[in-house]
Amino acid sequence: MIIDIILPLSLVFIMFTLGLGLTTNDFINVVKEPKAFAVGLLNQMVLLPAVAFGIVTVSGLTQEMAVGMMILASCPGGVTSNIITKLAKGDTALSISYTAVGSIATVVSLPLITTFSMQHFMGADAPPIDLLSLGFTMFLITALPVGIGLFVHSKFSNFAKSFEPLASKISTILFIIIVFGALASEWDAFIQNVFALGPAIIGLIIAMLFIGYKSTQLFKMSNARAVTVAIESGIQNATVGITIGNLIMNTEAGLSPLSLPSGVYGILMYVVCLPFVFWFLRSRTP
Fold first, then answer.
1. For labelling, which of 24, 76, 132, 148 has a CA lying 20 to 30 Å from the CA of 158?
2. Cα–Cα distance between 96 and 271 in angstroms, integer?
3. pLDDT digits over 230-245, tens only?
């Protein structure tokens, strides 16, 4: 029930909530700040999957877990990265712009990277996958709800401003239900794989935080933007990863092996990685 029905609907609502907090200026900022945006987008769309591929290759994960890690690395940022950016005194407007464009760009990039990963890691064992169908599904559950939220914000701004705080709280609750509910249904698999997945996931986040921060120094960006790029490079939307993994390889009950890395990530990001995020970022913010 949670996986097959609540999960996709919850993701649609979460992405709608994201769109509800957007304005057309968030897309215009991409044009106004091309250097800052290009660095972050390169980190998230190119370097993140490349680093994940390297970590997965040497980590000895199973075929399905390897593909699941690549799905996670292909996911866009989300509301979580926007909130963390704000708390860390980063450039929140830039963070929202990353999320807005990234959510649309992954409609194309995620299916391509997922298809390549399945062929590379699983070979003949890979389940059949329709690239166009997966791309269309990504559009329906991510880009379209964001677009509807943006439309509501622009046409019914008073309603959007009053409903957006409540919608954000609901989205947070739904995220918690998704992660813990999904993992509870596959608790044995979680326990068996958390020690294998944990180091790979934590290593990926730490590596991308470091790369994200250092890449901004090459272009002499402000501390606020450095913080923002680091967060956007290291924090992904686990709900998208869980949903896509289960859409590709749907089990009769519980969490798909392709979704397990995103599920584990959804917990480790808060339990283990979030304290590191604040230590890493605040220690470099004057």
1. 76
2. 24
3. 888 888 888 888 888 8
